[in-house]
Amino acid sequence: MRGVTHARWAAGALPVAVALAVAGCGGNGSSSGGAVGTAVLSSSWGDPQNPLEPSNTNEVQGGKVLDMIFRGLKKYDPKTGKATDMLAQSIDTPDSQNFTVRIKNGWTFSNGEKVTARSFVDAWNYGASLKNNQRNAYFFGYIQGYDKVHPAGGSQSADTLSGLKVVDDHTFTVKLDQKFSSFPDTLGYAAFAPLPRAFFTDHAAWLKKPVGNGPYTIESYTRGSQMALKKWDAYPGPDKAQNGGVTLRVYTDSNTAYTDLMAGNLDLVDDIPAAQLRNVKGDLGDRYINTPAGIIQTLAFPYYDPRWNKPGSEKVRTGLSMAINRRQITDTIFRQTRTPATDWTSPVLGPDGGFRAGLCGTACDYNPTEAKRLVKEGGGLPGGQVKITYNADTGSHKEWIDAVCNSINNALGNDRACVGNPVGTFADFRNQIGQHRMSGPFRAGWQMDYPLIQNFLQPLYYTNASSNDGKWSNKDFDRLVDQANAETDQAKAIATFQKAEGIVRDNMAAIPLWYQNGSAGYSERLSHVALNPFSVPVYNEIRVS
Asked: What's the pLDDT tens digit per position in 516-535?
């Protein structure tokens, strides 16, 4: 999303309250003792980077809201992550390139408008169009005509994708410019959500108060404070909200959020800060959740800076990777909530889904001697020092960044070889990345948009991909990804993606650090609390006593 995206960029541990809940509800944002299905819960959150347009949101905080107010053709099972039909009655194809999509009857947006085939086609055309400057436009790149509505250079020569055709109110067709056998499984990602006519007829008003077709509606939003979502009683889907709503409170320090939880002023914290991991089991008991998630943390590089994109720089990056003692850092700081990464995907995919333990090989092993040799052979650190940029609105990042730098400094025998470079907020951090203002490695957390190996590779490393923030480019990698997408045999497709991943490894396009578990803690008022494989609370299933 995901981030950066979906795919999504994981903000990491999040936020500390800058404001209490409104309407005289006390710290919990709702009156106590409400009937099941009517009481409101409060949850930690962070301001989204961008307005909540589905095709313009590729980071976790905005993604949480989209997952509450929209439903698409597919939905990812909250336990397994498997793509299942939601609004889709069927998605048929004779050749993995031409698809016929049929939509279920009875779906409406919360403003009463019917969800039709046009709701999807118009939304996808909007998302793909160059003039709308949508961060997730790339997700529509396989649909025929994308090169006309979103050319790599110059002005667009068409306003709509030629590969999208409305057949009737409940049917539309999709023609891709090449075979993509997994295309239907991507359609649970928020970028593919339908949009009501109000989005187009009064766009400014929609942005102030987005209207969707999911189990919640947005009541209000004050940036820097909170967003209030209310259960939509007329929601036609099978996954109705089991509570009266959710108040998402903005925090700028995850430790404060945890303190509020312990004081009874907050119901749910969906990322336990590192400083609290040694206490959390004693504090919360069974109300502490620690479960595997489709998240990997890496260090990305600015390949638009020629100092990081010259012959030999891959040796420097590999040397830095080998200078990081992942096991020591995960054991000391993260206490069973992180696992040292040995590839660029996630164990939640499983071997059948493309995860291959050890694919990184010795390049991910801690080896100070080899690290020092490779950095020297590669021409040394650009400017003589590495500055790792990260968002400082959570205590967790500073702690592990400092640990990574200490490991690098020790390995290279230079106590100034690596330093942290904090940026005040996640939004500012993401904006600087988007403006290509990084001068060295930067924190990159990736939360899968859908459980496919393709989603861990293509959005991040394909030339000009939506979340390829460092602008890495490799023709052989691109060719293998295209080949894998066109492969109709799943095992062959995965094997080809893994070959592409090998190119990422050989160039150390990004340094894999660790796989991240989803962690959360909740108050005694809540029950039926769970995190999905994307590490997001399944809000609609939570009950409030």
From this structure: 999 999 999 999 999 999 99
* Cα 482 from Cα 462, distance rounded (Å): 10
Residue 376 in 3-state DSSP?
helix
Q: State the sign of the Cα–Cα–Cα–Cα dihedral 313, 318, 319, 325.
A: positive
Task: For the beta carbon of residue 312, count every other beta carbon within 10 angstroms.
Answer: 11
What's 195's DSSP letter?
-
pLDDT digits (tens, 9 = 90+) for 467-521: 899 999 999 999 999 999 989 888 999 999 999 999 999 999 999 999 999 999 9
Identity of residue 371: A
| Non-local CB neighbours of 268 within 8 Å, separated by 6+ positions | 41, 42, 43, 44, 261, 520, 521, 522, 523, 526, 529, 537, 542
Q: Determine the distance from the C-alpha atom of residue 391 to the mean position of all C-alpha atoms in its chain, rounded to a whole number.
A: 16
- Please calculate the CA angle 457-354-501 and round it to the nearest 5 degrees: 40
Q: Whose structure tokens read 């999807």?
A: 120
In the numeric block, the tokens 């459980």 are attached to: 451
pLDDT at residue number 36:
53
- Residue 506 contacts residue 499 (beta carbons within 8 Å): no
Q: Cα dihedral sign for 335, 341, 346, 348?
A: negative
20 three-state secondary structure: coil
Identify residue 350 by its one-letter amino acid code: G
Q: What are 415-421's contacts with CB under 8 Å, separation 24+?
A: 416/385, 417/381, 417/385, 417/386, 418/385, 418/386, 418/387, 418/388, 419/385, 419/386, 419/387, 419/388, 420/387, 420/388, 420/390, 421/387, 421/388, 421/389, 421/390
- Tell me which residue of 308, 264, 338, 322 sits closest to 522, measured CA to CA: 264
Tokens of 170: 């409940």
Question: Are residues 174 and 87 in contact, defined by beta-carbon separation less than 8 angstroms?
Answer: no
pLDDT at 73 over 70: yes
Torsion angle in degrees (nearest 10) through CA of 86, 89, 92, 98: -70
Q: Is the pLDDT of residue 19 over 60?
A: no
- Token pair, residue 277, equals 């991991």
